[in-house]
Amino acid sequence: MEPLLEISGLTVDYTTAGGSTVCALSDVSLQVFAHEIIGVLGESGSGKTTMGLSALRLLPANAAIRSGRIRLRGRNLLDLREKDLAKVRGAEISHIFQEPAQALNPVLSAGRQISYVLRAHKKLSNRELIAEVHAMLALVGFNDPERIARAYPHQLSGGQRQRVAIAQALACRPAVLIADEPLSSLDAATQAETLALLQRLRSEIGLAILFISHDADTLAAFASRTVVMEKGTVVAGGSIQELRSNSSGYVRALISPGASLKAPTPAEEAAGTPLLSVRNLTKRYVQRQVLSRRAFIVEALSGVSLELNRGATVALIGKSGAGKSTLARCIAGFETPDAGEMLLDGFPLRNLKRQMRWQVQMIFQDAAGSLNPRFTAERLITEPLDILGRGTKAERRRRALNLLEEVGLDLKFADRLPAELSGGQRQRIAIARALAVDPKLLILDEAFSGLDRPRQARIGALLQTLQQRHGFACLHISHDVGFASLLASEILVMGDGRIAAKFSSEEIRNSRDTTALMSMAVDPGSSRPEVEAAP
Amino acid sequence: MIRYISRRFANSLFLLVVVSAIVFGLAQAAPGDFFSDATINQRISAETVAALRARYGMEKSLPVRYWGWLRSLGTGELGYSFAYDLPVGKILWPRMGHTLLLTVPALLLSWLVAVPLGILVATRRGSLVDRIFSVGTSAMLALPDLLIALLILLFALRTRMFPVGGMNSVVIPPGWWSGWKDTAWHMFLPVLAIAFGALPMILRHTRASMMEVLDSPYVRAARGLGLSRFVTLYRHALPAAANPLISLLGISVGGLLSVSLLVEVIVSWPGIGPLVLEAVLGRDLFLVMGAVMFFSVFLIAGGLLADILLYLLDPRIRMQS
């Protein structure tokens, strides 16, 4: 059988700002047959995205395809002129990207964006166009396509945006869809919905999908075949089940990233008072309009209680908007709760002087955003010490360099600026900075979600080591149940501003279907899923 | 929609009242008045000067005078010119018409040329065209407006293709059409000078704003879905890049006026420019204040226009309000 999309011997170079060339892909070959889902697995920087973009010839200007062929239905896309290429793009081969918020134009309505794609490839009257837009939105599962067509991206949720992006990509019924990490910015429940939608569309409109991901679990359930990429080359291929038996360290780290992590120790029975105890915390946001008596009240937290023991790790899971971050911000002192009590070591956090705030440290999702771009790594780490006035200058410097080593960075990183570091390295700097003051509690607000699986696992392992050495407690906020359960001994599920359920990490790991667990936690009405007994 | 616009409108009105108070306060704080020179003159008695001042109500208290002036603003009279012995409105209104005759075409011209050029340059980043424009706009920005106006004047003198001054020829053939044609012929150079002064700023902003949007994932996505170059640039990228440009439009409305002032003086265009210059030198206070108020109205109207356009074009702003 003739493959639908065939990439053979593809080599791509990037020219850096300095003028040197970096090889992004070398001699990559891949075949996609009709109605097939092919997974592409690899860590960030392995060339997955470059390959996806090459197939559409959407590479940035500083990239050049050195050699190879990309054949779609036997026709080499690399030979096409820009004008003929435009006829193929969207009509025969299409794509969806990682961040649906950015893949949609913020100032155009969803319907208009879909209609542009239709108009580019088909001659339709205005009435047919509108009907087709609505039909497309209905196909991706919207019950009210008319309303969605009028909506602008900022009025849609992340999952809805991704569905609009899918509708846009499939409007002209292409044969191949390139999906570049389409799930990674969505929460677990929405991920499951989107995945189900793609499955359905594949059978309904006969689509072949090239599914790029760093998450082996998703591919295991979804892709018939997977190729594994490392540093621009294909290093392994086959089904995930076959790949599991692969001996290569790289492949194994990708497929079961949790393997390098120690199983979290179950929470020891409270010896004395818990480190952190939160009781009935309530926080409301009131939005008032100028010259208007109407006020919108959003109850972000309604009576949250939790306890955290010394040295323990607790994960806080929930959909976006469940109140996780608000809770973290209250504990860290960025927000003042309206009611309730927070005790750290039996001392009310609310009365904590600014000088004593160091006891709680926070690590943010976006390390790049939380590090001053003009500070070197060393200055970033010494800054909290400078503020608290701890030690002499030489001592602070020594401590910073020690910490750098502790988080697994070479001393040569001390002079680097955040822009000169990778995402994982930046997150390590953020951890070192948080630990500089020896905190009792570390709050990680989605600190891993910007990283790919193997990096998540490495940073997770690092945190475990550091935690053992320094004995701080961790409050780990995440939307990723699977990964959180590898780190935390206890998992709290938040929904609508309250703690909806509580699981031990064993319960989670032993349950097959974490998504069901999540959705149950989010809709407290449904029953608890069946959990297999722990061995 | 109506609520938003009316609120903006009320804000603008309030701002105008504040401006009027400042203008009035500054004018009063300035030493001397129209009759100061007369006091030096031996042949004019102090009584005569006092009588003159009394005639114009200049001995009344400050709030009373301010209130009087505000009321005359409301009727469009804008106070009284001593030099012309006429209400300021009567002198100012036709002159404003002449100034607008220069600035409105200049505004349209500069935007209609600069935006497509800016888009073109943005799509060819780093190319020769881009570099030429980059150097060119820098040079144009560095050139003082005065120099541009003088160069154009020189051009007119040397080539004798265009008239060098005034708004109309001395003798115009009969018929309304030839009158218009004559004015348009006189307008050509000053409009060009004003548009030329505004062009580089608009071009640079268009380039910067478009470049940012062209890098965005949604423009890449649009390309990847087979949208034509024209649709991608003008239907996808331009609306998304428009916000800073609209704000600039609001500011440039006011900015053009100040360039126009200068150009008018140089080519002796009977607009507000020469009038204001003369009024300032002659201490014809109400005329100056009237002109300043006119400028403020223009600037504030530019801001209002930008706000309304932003509201109409950006759904995110519509959402907030």
Largest sheet of chain A: 6 strands, mixed
Low-confidence stretches of chain A: 520-535
The pLDDT mean of chain B sits at: 84
Largest sheet of chain B: 2 strands, antiparallel
Give the DSSP E fraction of chain B (strand runs of 2 or more residues): under 5%
Give the tally of β-strands of chain A.
20
Assess the beta-strand content of chain A as a share of residues: 25-35%
Strand line-up across the major sheet of chain B: 1-2
C-alpha termini separation of chain B? 9 Å
| Shape annotation of chain B | globular
Largest interface (CB within 8 Å) is between: A-B, 34 and 26 residues
Which value, in Å, is the CA radius of gyration of chain A?
A: 25 Å
Strand sequence of the main sheet of chain A, in spatial order? 6-7-8-3-9-10
Helix count from the secondary structure assignment of chain A = 20
- Mean of all residue-level pLDDT scores of chain A: 81
Query: What separation lies between the terminal Cα atoms of chain A?
Result: 47 Å
- Secondary-structure-based class of chain A equals alpha/beta
Structure commentary:
- The complex is a heterodimer of chains A (535) and B (321).
- With 535 residues, chain A is of the alpha/beta class.
- Chain A is 36% helix and 26% strand.
- Chain A has 20 helices and 20 strands.
- Chain A has helices at residues 48-56, 82-88, 100-103, 110-121, 126-139, 145-150, 158-170, 188-205, 216-222, 240-244, 249-255, 324-332, 367-370, 377-388, 393-406, 423-435, 453-470, 481-487, 505-510, 514-522, and strands spanning 5-15, 21-32, 37-42, 63-72, 75-76, 93-96, 176-180, 208-213, 225-230, 233-238, 276-288, 295-308, 313-318, 339-344, 347-348, 360-363, 441-445, 473-478, 490-495, 498-504.
- In chain A, the strands form four sheets. Chain A has a six-stranded mixed sheet with strand order 6-7-8-3-9-10, sandwiched between helices. A six-stranded mixed sheet of chain A has the order 16-17-18-13-19-20, with helices on both faces.
- In chain A, helix 15 (393-406) crosses helix 16 (423-435).
- The longest helix of chain A is centred in the middle third of the chain and has 18 residues, at 188-205.
- Chain A is globular and about 70 Å long.
- Mean pLDDT of chain A is 81; it is low at 520-535.
- The longest helix of chain B has 39 residues, at 176-214.
- Chain B has a two-stranded antiparallel ribbon with strand order 1-2.
- Chain B has 321 residues and is mainly alpha-helical.
- Helix content of chain B is 79%, strand content 1%.
- Chain B has 13 helices and two strands.
- The mean pLDDT of chain B is 84.
- The interface between A and B is medium-sized, with 34 and 26 residues.
